[in-house]
Design brief:
With 324 residues, the protein is mostly helical. It has one domain: Glycosyltransferase. The protein has twelve helices and four strands. The strands form two sheets. Strands 1-2 form a two-stranded antiparallel sheet. It has a two-stranded antiparallel ribbon with strand order 3-4. A hairpin with a 2-residue loop joins strand 1 and strand 2 (40-42). The longest helix has 23 residues, at 3-25. The two termini are 13 Å apart.
């Protein structure tokens, strides 16, 4: 058997086990919970992220989506609609205000399901846009500090949510956000991240925005020589590379992720989420920007890896025989 069918079979097994793991972690009401930050565990943000990753996976699978996964997505969507915050958005959990990241993820997930996105959710998301064109995680006030200023990964996810809905041609809010995102791009083609230990997730989102505006974007060359430190980083690099085909590095990354999958179908999380200090504007340049946290239930990491492996599988199937 040639290498491509062997890898495809291994991908199918890993993807199936990850599906089982995520379905087992969904509670009876339809939500997913993870993280252990100072405000407590996350429900709304985690459910929106896992739902978005599973919706991306379902789209890549097409008609092959298993019925129990379809039911889980519908249940999660209903749960999110019923747990919208009083101000019209979603947040990390009900102990903190709504934020642009959670709201954008919820909109993206709900946009991919059969039911409607709640009225005015897009308007609420737009309220996080700043005068410079970017999107902040929280609306600025006297306490938010740097949390109320424009962030690369937040601007990118907000744009994806806004672009998922047909908008009038030349929407000035979207144009200003795209301009901000382009200005924030580093010289090596990647983006920094305000809330994460690396900019890999921000880069994946930024490439997705540019692709939605003008077709697939080549992954920055620096990613092709990067050695990821953990499964989350491997998944994010693989997702970036798989957006434009099946480069040689994709096989090694996919193989590493398949090998690193735990017996229960999950992937080990790593300290990657940063609670950036409110007085820190550029955490990527700071020697002490804030503490890092891992997802203790592995739900967030596993959903991210599943979405990346599903995208890689689709890219492998579309690659020319000589490129596999």
């Amino acid at each position: 058997m040639s290498p491509a069918p062997v890898l495809r079979a291994a991908l199918d097994r890993a993807i199936g086990r990850a599906e089982e793991a995520l379905l087992a972690r969904q509670d009876a009401a339809g939500s997913w919970t993870d993280w252990a930050l100072p405000p407590g565990p996350s429900s709304e943000w985690t459910t929106a992220h896992v739902g978005h990753c599973l919706a991306r996976h379902a789209t890549a699978q097409g008609a092959q989506v298993r019925p129990d996964l379809a039911r889980a997505l519908a249940q999660a969507a209903a749960w999110l609609r019923s747990h919208r915050f009083p101000d019209g958005g979603w947040g990390y959990n009900p102990a903190v205000p709504s934020d642009a990241d959670s709201t954008a993820l919820a909109i993206l997930f709900l946009s991919a399901t059969a039911g409607p996105v709640p009225k005015d959710a897009h308007r609420h998301l737009r309220s996080f846009q700043q005068p410079d064109g970017g999107f902040a995680t929280f609306r600025p006030d006297g306490l938010t500090g740097s949390w109320g200023r424009s962030h690369p990964e937040i601007t990118a996810i907000a744009l994806l949510a806004l672009l998922a809905r047909p908008a009038p041609s030349g929407d000035p809010a979207i144009a200003r956000a795209v301009a901000w995102l382009r200005r924030a791009r580093r010289g090596d083609g990647c983006w920094n991240a305000f809330w994460w230990a690396t900019g890999l997730g921000a880069t994946d989102l930024g490439l997705a925005v540019l692709a939605s505006l003008g077709g697939p974007q080549p992954a920055p060359p620096v990613l092709r020589s990067l050695t990821p430190a953990d499964s989350l980083q491997s998944a994010l690099v693989l997702s970036c590379l798989a957006r434009t085909g099946w480069p040689p590095q994709a096989r090694a990354l996919a193989g590493r992720l398949i090998s690193d999958q735990a017996a229960d179908g999950t992937w080990q999380g790593a300290p990657a989420l940063r609670i950036t200090r409110r007085e820190c504007d550029s955490p990527w340049d700071s020697p002490d920007p804030g503490p890092l946290f891992a997802d203790p239930r592995r739900t967030f990491t596993t959903a991210t890896v599943l979405a990346a492996l599903s995208a890689a599988r689709a890219a492998l199937l579309q690659a020319a025989p000589g490129e596999r």
